[in-house]
């Protein structure tokens, strides 16, 4: 796939404080890339430098292989959608969508077909003559999307576009955005701090943390093989056992967690000592007898989730282990563990990830 957009050492500093450290990022043509990360991690800053709304402190931006670092925003072929819909309140839906096209001096004869096509795409043709104040939040966001798509930008930047909507509408609009991405074939860069949204929508996720990229990869890569403890903790439900790597008998290694030694699978490239965390996802673990498990604990809570059940096992039975420590196991529906029951926790080594960063 050809590269649509590339940043080379792109960085932004505000009064000596980095909002984005020098960042290299490559986005393929037609890709749906999501910038995911906690508040203040630099997502909007990166997006705004791509759009041209914020001037970089250093580095370069290439679009279609051409240096676009200092191009005016209107010259980049980029459309933007924000959380606040930023519709003009005194203009009808139709005129709101037409506005960007008029600004771009689209010939009069092409204007009406382009506006109608954009409104059709978001299924809002029937609302063309309404004012924004006469629309629901979801409908307003659809118009904001139509206004952006109308001039057929080849890159579309979306900054938490669904942040103001309730959960159900959000999920509906996520499907709409996926469909629009497929229909338009444009390159999408989407900002969110909602991990489920990122997993649902993206070809790749760029996880950001403290003004830099923590990890970038497909949703499955980030979920199954997080590179750092932060990535493991941020994406999906995680059981993270923090401890110190120790050599045990016949060259094998284990993780010392408090007063317990948790076996870890064969890891030839592992440092012989040092702090590490073992990640075990709830669906990779199972309940066994206390003697058989790598860890033992007491079932504190059983949560019924429809398709399956989660047992929350408290590991804090005296000892040195922090008493707040829980371990969540996804159980098949027909298994109904009892609160208070003493259980063991087991998993296949291949489904656990040892993290040393
Ligand atoms: N105009 C500005 N002046 C000074 N500091 C800024 C400015 N804009 C952003 N920052 C700082 O840069 C850092 C990154 O901000 P940014 O808006 O990119 O975060 P974000 O990841 O989009 O967060 P959120 O999820 O809250 O929107 C923050 O620490 C922020 O305070
Ligand atoms: Mg932001």
Automatic annotation (TrEMBL):
Any Gene Ontology biological process: putrescine transport
Stored PANTHER family: SPERMIDINE/PUTRESCINE IMPORT ATP-BINDING PROTEIN POTA, SPERMIDINE_PUTRESCINE IMPORT ATP-BINDING PROTEIN POTA
Keyword Membrane: yes
SUPFAM superfamilies from the UniProt entry: MOP-like, P-loop containing nucleoside triphosphate hydrolases
Domain of life: Bacteria
Tagged with keyword Phosphoprotein: no
Residue stretches making up the ABC transporter domain: 5-235
GO cellular component, one term: ATP-binding cassette (ABC) transporter complex
Originating species: Pandoraea horticolens
Protein name in the entry: ABC transporter
GO molecular function: ATP binding; ATP hydrolysis activity; transmembrane transporter activity
Swiss-Prot/TrEMBL keywords: ATP-binding, Cell inner membrane, Cell membrane, Membrane, Nucleotide-binding, Transport
